[in-house]
Each structure stands twice: as structure tokens, then as C-alpha cells.
Amino acid sequence: MSKSWFTRAAVVGSVAVATIVGSSGAAIASDETLTLSGGRGAMTFIDDGDVFKVCDTRADGHGVTGELFYRSWLEPTNRLVLTVDDGGDSGCDKAGYNVGNDGYYQMRVCWDGWDPIVSCQWSEEFNE
What CA–CA distances, in Å, run from 51 to 1, 20, 85? Predict the structure, then answer.
């Protein structure tokens, strides 16, 4: 009787370890920069203070838009929680947003012109 209990416990333990080792989680937040091709712009997450900076780096008449999406552990879809636009002025634009650990966050930066090669760049999911 104790042998079958031990066997079942070993199987359950093996499955639990395999699940933990095999699962892929979100990256822990740290400074990260997404850069658009052609030198058109970038979006940077600055972990110290949870600041998002968007820079339009080309004077081409089009701006750059950075967005932050959030998905809680219970929601199946992303929700837009922050938008930062830059273009038409010198310097970059910034906004703060408190990134927590109660779900996943993902950044997207897009050039506001039309070019199928440039389009948008997405970050990996992350949290605090």
C-alpha cells in the first residue's frame, strides 16, 4: 500500500517540476528600448520611475506613437493603458505609468507614416 502511494506522489511531483521548468513566464522589468527600422524612432521603458519615453528621430513629416498594453492574469486580451506621441517638436515625449506584477505589460512603437517595412515593433511581455 505504501509503495503505490509513493509511486503516485513521485508521478505528481515529476509533473509539477516539469510544468514549472517548462513554462515560459514574462520577463522581469528592466530598461528596454524598441527601435523602428530606418532610424525613424524609438520607445524606451525606464524601470527607475516607470517612465516611457518616445522619440521621433527623423524629420520626415511623420511622428512616432508608443503604446503600453496590459493584460491581467484573469483577462484573455490586452487593454491599452498608455499612449505617448512624439513628432513635430525637438526632444522626446515622456509619460509615467506604474508597472506592477499583477499581470503582463507589452510595449508597441509605431511610425505614423505608411511603410510596410517600418510599421510597428512589439516588445516581449514583462512585469515588475
Answer: 59, 32, 14
